[in-house]
Amino acid sequence: MGNPEATSAIVAAHADLTSRLPFDDDADFAAAEKGFIGTLAEPRVLDADGEVVWDASTYDFFDGGAAPDTVNPSLWRQSKLVAKHGLFEVVPGLYQVRGLDLSVMSFIEGDTGVIVVDPLISKETATAAAALYREHRGDRPIVAVIHTHSHIDHFGGVQGIVTQPEVDAGDVAIIAPEGLVEHAVAENVYAGTAMGRRAGYMYGAALPRGTRGAVGAGLGQTTSTGEATLLAPTLEITTTGETHTIDGVEFEFQMAPGTEAPTEMHFYIPRYEALCMAENATHTLHNLLTLRGALVRDPNVWSRYLTEAIERFGGRAQVVFASHHWPTWGNAEIVEFLSLQRDLYGYLHDQTLRLLNQGLTGAEIAEVIQLPPALENAWHARGYYGSVSHNVKAIYQRYMGWFDGNPARLWPHPPAALAERYVEAIGGIDRVLEMARAAYDTGDFRWAATLLDHAVFVDASNGAVKALYADTLEQLGYGSENGTWRNFFLSGATELRGGNFGTPTVTNAPAILAQLSPEQVFDAIAITIDGPNAWDLDLAFDITISDLNRDFHVTLRNGVLVYVERVREPDTDAALHLSLEKERLIRLAGGDLQSDGLSVTGDFGVLERLFSVLSPGDPNFEIVLP
Prior knowledge:
Largest sheet: 8 strands, mixed
Helix content: 25-40%
Shape: globular
Number of strands: 21
């Protein structure tokens, strides 16, 4: 079971933080409640099979009292704010549903219907959010959906509120920044298996909700587990300053690529004097490198786009809202909020570069960097989702890579081999365990975790090692201000005690895979080829994708799959020619060699030999164990 209580070291650290932060400032609580209209009568959202995909009531343990010892008081404050759920009026004509998924879904009323912004992760939660809006605002038709950027919590629920036939008929516009589909499907497919497994840790998917378990991820409480979908845009926004009138409402767009997402945009609505900042200005320090894994984001560009937003819209906006958290009202308050957010990312970027140019490594910079008081004491700049520590290391990685320049660290042993040597040098497992217990008892949980990490990689079956390691991670979780750090620590403890929980939420859903281009399908196959087993294969074949009228020549040599689009010669000498539609190509990539829809000319064994060397990702790979 582990230690159910926080140790005295954690309690003392919480007391110190409480004394340093402005907990008497409760303005956020008033803002998070402002405009509340109502919430779901039934807080559980079910899928078609009756399975729960979201249950807002699981966070009912939050109350008006002080934080328990097992939760960082700053994270407790943030989680109470984020757990509030229901329909809220931002200004008359602009509404948000909050607390029904990781993200926020917004409704902008036009002349005849409503424009929806960022319809959550799952069809089911998006449907529930739209129903809640209509319950209080009437059955207005959805005339457009805006996706602010390419992360799944901003497009996944779209088919829960509109259909492909409605889009095809021109009844609903799908509006997104240029390149959204390409980036959306690539992120969920190329490294999707590894990201999904780590996302289970990041969002605490397997943790019980409560004061000793999951209390939230800082940006939102957690991810819903319903069906993710995607509809291709009918209008792509490409240029800052571009304006479009949708159902009588004018939108002025600002492009912000390479910030929180590879493709992202902000927009201003003159009718409502409202500025949407997508996910680039929320009530937390965001990630520059998310713990689930992603490309490192650029804080320098991020801060510059915030400056541009202030310059373009700061004199006009009376409310700023985003696709997470609650809005900020008042022109002066908006400029201050955006300016502090801008300074946060700019400061981390500039100071990390200053210190790395003085010879400090990323880990060293993370220990010494200090935010200025104005940022340290701004609740919306606290590290609930991103953290100063891992963001600084991400900036270092962006500029300098994984190697810190010390030749002793250029070619270290991998974890298991390194662990064996450390444990032997220290004096064996028993001695390591003794040292770890001493570190635990003195509150040095970071050192205890390091020792026990080595020990468990030497002997993963050692019950005493695993038990103390789990207790140690639990204490680190109790102390974490960052919601995703807490989830990672507590998820590690959960697996040490109860075994691998796998990947609870899968993002490469059929509706997302359907948007893959042929090139992306070939790439997805290429990254699953077991190179050594394919060294001796020399394969070539042609593929016609009949519904797209496109032809590709594909080869496998030296363990590398290469594809080239070219006009097919009638008398090709390729040993195999396949003809199929794109949907069948996607199923083929998933391993379906037998079902209908595949026209084969030539040696089918070519394809069989290719598929014999595929090695798909493992959604159950170990994280805290070797």
